[in-house]
Design goal:
Strand 21, helix 23 and strand 22 form a beta-alpha-beta unit. The strands form seven sheets. Strands 2-11-10-3-9 form a five-stranded mixed β-sheet. The chain has a five-stranded antiparallel β-sheet with strand order 14-13-12-16-17, with helices on one face. The longest helix is centred in the N-terminal third of the chain and has 24 residues. By secondary structure, it is of the alpha+beta class. Helix 12 crosses helix 13. The protein has 25 helices and 24 strands. The termini are far apart.
């Protein structure tokens, strides 16, 4: 009897596995629900009678029931890196140009970005061994007990193969709707959205709960495709599909950015019709050898990006308006909101910019307002819903004194913003330190906003020179929670490296009012050293291109202030570079003094390279066409910028004309 039972268990397992594959992967079932239930019940009874015959990959494992005490850790053999996000056409063009600048002519695969939870699934001899979350990219949580309940993940592959695949665990829209109906009837809190529901379900200690949630997957990545003789990402997708994995059929080849944008625009419209949530489109270089040569940063592959769809608006209540103090002393009103989910994250605050902004929008405390996330990142108050007012709303009142130090606020030069002019205001110090360390300023990796605030509050950094004395606190820092020996060493190395930055980074980092990174570069190129800049009169500065009277006064006054002079001298004593280290500006009659916009693809040079050359020869570059634009350089697939230039009668250079100018530069330099 046992021998016959064993044979029947094998037969039933194959019937049920095939039925699951047809239903959950191919969406083309051949068994009726009644037949499926009958076979599953027969298998359950046989395994109950002969428990020693139940395998780890039995379909009965999918109903759940395994309960764990806590999640174990699993180290990924290959790090599970995330993709860098982009939010507009320009960033997609920049991604493409970086790859072409590296000497490649890429073909891309565009795929839908599923809004779920990343997972890694490891098989040995075709059998599912472990499932894990991304975690910190190096170590994830063992979720094998819950992964086994997901019917689109095969417990046994069609080949006896050792393999790891990665994909997205998600919950379908109809599943969420049904679950919330059931939870509502039981007076249970509703699940907020598909992504949160999937993440919460996969992290249940009791696998029966995960089984009831009916999770699903799309498999999209093979970490080591060349080990299987594959040459492209698309081949890897087909290879995984043939093994029995559920691979999303919605993907498309793209030879250039225009074809990428066409796919994005198509699914920006279609996404609401899909049975699952997507929040963007993933763009990957198809050729695996090209991927390998492009390589990785510490956080991301250089051969892929994730485009995020534009903002979604939701309604919530504006419960209060509070005020913050920036590094220049500028006072900013901020909306305090009833927590609301926008594009999958909870929003509680949003900037209101200045007094005029609040008054123009007619915002009142207790208003119902619409919120969106600009670029899917920054929360923005769009408008007050006047029809929702009840009479209990409170008029906005601008404050007259600093909320931190209580100094009287003032406006500068008839600007719309109010300022705290107290140089000792603690809030100004923190914001100034954050700005000094920022990427476009001194670029000190490891000194982000929250860390600077921590170090300020702990007394390690009270002013800019303190950053360069952090070494004396090395032992204290290592004893803080979350700060290991290696991370502190990396931070100190980054601080030391920042001493060698070119002058423009220091000028921007000092936080001179109105001086952005581009103006800082203009000043550094012009005056070469900080001493030369400090010795300029206000009248001399006014005469500079792109400076003007307001910026000239700001620069002059900054370097007349005795505290700022002391700061510069202190930084000099710490061996901070005070000289411009970039190339000297050159002259060319076709470029110097003109404003350029580059659009489309130039075959022999990236957009970034073209803009660097224009800046080197005294021209200016911009990302948008306006009446101030002198020349638009147009390559292949230029988009709307070329059309706008024609309408405005702006001079247009095609690739041949730019090449002639470029070759004349090379001739000129010989």
């Amino acid at each position: 009897m046992k021998e016959e039972a064993a044979k029947r268990i094998i037969e039933l397992t194959k019937i049920i596995d095939d039925a699951n594959y047809e239903y959950y992967v191919l969406a083309n079932p051949t068994l009726t629900d009644q037949e499926f239930d009958k076979y599953l019940k027969e298998l359950e009874n046989l395994e109950k009678e002969y428990p020693e015959l139940q395998s780890e990959t039995s379909p009965t494992k999918r109903v759940g029931g395994e309960v764990i005490d806590k999640f174990k850790k699993i180290k990924h053999s290959i790090p599970m890196l995330s993709l860098p996000d982009v939010f507009n056409e320009e960033e997609i063009y920049e991604f493409d140009e970086r790859i072409r600048k590296s000497g490649f002519l890429p073909e891309y695969v565009c795929e839908l970005k599923i809004d779920g939870l990343s997972g890694s699934f490891h098989y040995e001899k075709g059998n599912l061994i472990t499932g894990a979350t991304r975690g910190d990219a190096i170590v994830g949580e063992d979720i094998t007990h819950n992964v086994k309940t997901i019917k689109s993940i095969p417990l046994k592959l069609k080949e006896s193969i050792n393999i790891e695949v990665r994909g997205e665990i998600y919950m379908g829209k109809s599943t969420l709707e049904k679950l919330n109906q059931e939870r509502s009837q039981k007076n249970q809190p509703l699940l907020q959205n598909c992504r949160n529901a999937a993440a919460g379900s996969i992290r249940q200690l009791d696998s029966k709960i995960a089984a009831e949630r009916k999770l699903d997957t799309w498999i999209y990545h093979l970490p080591n495709p060349k080990d299987y003789g594959l040459k492209t990402h698309y081949e890897a997708l087909q290879f995984m599909k043939n093994l029995g994995f559920k691979v999303n059929p919605v993907n498309r080849f793209a030879k250039n950015v225009e074809e990428i944008l066409k796919f994005i625009n198509e699914y920006a419209q279609k996404r609401f019709e899909l049975p699952y949530d997507i929040d963007g489109v993933v763009i990957k270089v198809n050729d695996l050898e090209m991927q390998e040569k492009l390589g990785y940063t510490s956080k991301h592959p250089k051969w892929a990006i994730a485009y995020k769809f534009p903002a979604e608006e939701v309604l919530t209540k504006l419960t209060d308006i509070i005020f913050s103090v920036g590094r220049t002393g500028k006072i900013t009103p901020n909306a305090v909101l009833e927590p609301v989910i926008v594009m999958g994250s909870t929003i509680k605050r949003a900037t209101l910019h200045n007094e005029d902004y609040v008054l123009e929008k007619g915002l009142k405390i207790n208003d119902i307002v619409s919120i969106r996330k600009a670029g899917d990142v920054i929360p923005e108050v769009v408008e007050a819903k006047l029809e929702r007012r009840t009479g209990k709303e409170i008029d906005f009142q601008m404050i007259s004194h600093c909320p931190i130090c209580n100094s009287k606020l003032e406006k500068k030069n008839d600007q719309v913003d109010y300022y705290c002019l107290n140089p000792l205001c603690p809030a100004r110090h923190i914001e100034g330190l954050i700005h000094f360390c920022a990427r476009k300023a001194m670029n000190i990796e490891g000194l982000g906003e929250s860390i600077v605030e921590d170090f300020f509050n702990l007394g390690f950094i009270k002013n800019i020179p303190d950053i360069y004395h952090l070494e004396i606190h090395k032992q204290d820092l290592q004893e803080l929670e979350g700060y290991g020996k290696k991370s502190i060493e990396n931070l100190l190395n980054a601080i030391e490296a920042s001493k060698k930055n070119s002058l423009e980074r220091l000028l921007f980092g000092l936080g001179i009012e109105g001086i952005g990174d581009k103006t800082a570069l203009i000043l550094a190129k012009k005056y070469k050293t900080v001493e030369n800049l400090m010795n300029q009169s206000e009248e001399d500065l006014k005469e500079m291109k792109d400076i003007g009277p307001i910026l000239a006064k700001n620069i002059f006054c900054f370097f007349q202030n005795v505290d700022n002079i002391a700061l510069i001298n202190n930084l000099k004593s710490l061996n901070i570079n005070m000289m411009y280290l970039g190339e000297e500006e050159k002259y060319h009659e076709e470029i110097s003094g003109k404003r350029f916009v580059v659009t489309g693809t130039i075959s022999f040079m990236s957009r970034e390279e073209i803009e660097d050359i224009i800046n080197l020869y005294g021209g200016n570059t911009s990302s948008s066409v306006s009446g101030k634009t002198n020349v638009v350089i147009v390559g292949e697939s230029p988009g709307s910028k070329a059309d706008k230039a024609r309408k405005l009668g702006i001079e247009i250079w095609n690739e041949t004309q730019w090449q002639e100018v470029y070759e004349s530069l090379n001739f000129q330099s010989k």
